[in-house]
Write a structure and sequence with these properties.
- Helices cover 30% and strands 21% of the residues.
- By secondary structure, it is an alpha/beta fold.
- It has a domain at 201-281.
- The strands form 4 sheets. It has a 4-stranded parallel sheet with strand order 1-2-3-4, covered by helices on one side. A 3-stranded antiparallel sheet has the order 5-6-7.
- The radius of gyration is 21 Å and the shape is globular.
- The two termini are 30 Å apart.
- 34% of the residues are buried.
Length: 281
């Protein structure tokens, strides 16, 4: 369900565990460590994390409720893994790099919707406009979804999703190959021999002040074991905004923002290479 913050839902999870003690139970969605722990202690094996990050979700706009997805993943992963549970990062991925960041933040699984929409295997309704074919893609709390599954939008609530038209993208195999290739490359950049090690090899730091939208974000930096004082961490991928209040500043090192790498030989670039706080779990 979209809102896992319900006492009735917690009780339902407990009853489900009592009824099916050997089955795997996945419960959600939540975005905080406390509620993640509550669901696991009630019997859930896996917790779904994410409120409002989906590409066709408008919950944050309609309700003002939400949580930065990477922050939620990091916080909930810490809580779940401490109790032997697992989490699914649900939503917020638009590139293979986003998938890598979700795993780097501690997610055990990553759910994809928009990245896989519009393909031949997606099963969406195809419409034609001006001789070009499009596939309809809608959020599960959108007006389209509620009309199809529950007969319409109830008078007392608003739709929290939208419907978009996507150009046909062909077979999903090519997109899947691109995502897997990005994940493999991410692991090689940070020295992870397998996907499970990615979170152990990842450090997130804030990086701002650039003019390119995809770089106006924190960045994952490589941190070799035993080299925490390395002066020039290697930039990996830009990361969306996330809450860093509970993280500890461990050291300060001179870092060249990714946008300045091509100009690193100039004196201007050197002056722009400001010290940045490295944040580590």
């Amino acid at each position: 369900m979209a809102n896992g913050y319900s006492e009735h839902f917690v009780q339902f999870v407990a009853k489900a565990r009592e009824a099916w003690p050997t089955k795997t139970i996945c419960a959600g969605n939540v975005v905080t460590g406390e509620m993640c722990e509550e669901l696991i202690l009630s019997g859930a094996d896996i917790v779904k994390v994410g409120i409002g990050p989906g590409s066709v979700c408008t919950t944050r706009v309609k309700t003002g409720v939400g949580y930065p997805q990477l922050s939620a993943v990091i916080e909930c992963a810490d809580a779940a893994h401490g109790l032997g549970g697992m989490i699914v990062s649900d939503g917020g991925c638009t590139t293979p790099g986003d998938v890598a960041k979700a795993f780097g933040g501690g997610a055990d699984f990553v759910m994809l919707g928009g990245m896989l929409a519009g393909h031949e295997e997606s099963g969406g309704r195809i419409v034609e406009e001006n001789g070009e074919k499009f596939m309809l893609f809608y959020g599960m709390s959108s007006e389209s979804a509620m009309k199809r599954h529950v007969g319409g939008v109830a008078e007392y609530r608003a739709a929290e999703g939208k419907t978009v038209k996507l150009p046909l993208r062909g077979p999903v195999e090519n997109t899947a190959r691109d995502i897997l290739g990005g994940l493999r490359s991410a692991c090689t950049y940070v020295g992870a021999s397998r996907l499970k090690e990615l979170t152990k090899r990842t450090t997130f730091i804030p990086c701002a002040g650039t003019r390119k939208p995809h770089l106006q974000q924190p960045v994952i930096y490589q941190r070799w074991r035993g080299a925490t004082r390395q002066r020039y961490p290697i930039p990996l991928i830009a990361s969306p905004k996330w809450k860093i209040g509970r993280y500890i500043a461990t050291t300060s090192v001179p870092i060249i923002p990714p946008v300045m790498i091509s100009n690193a030989g100039s004196s201007k670039a050197a002056r722009l290479s400001a010290s940045a706080i490295v944040l580590s779990r």
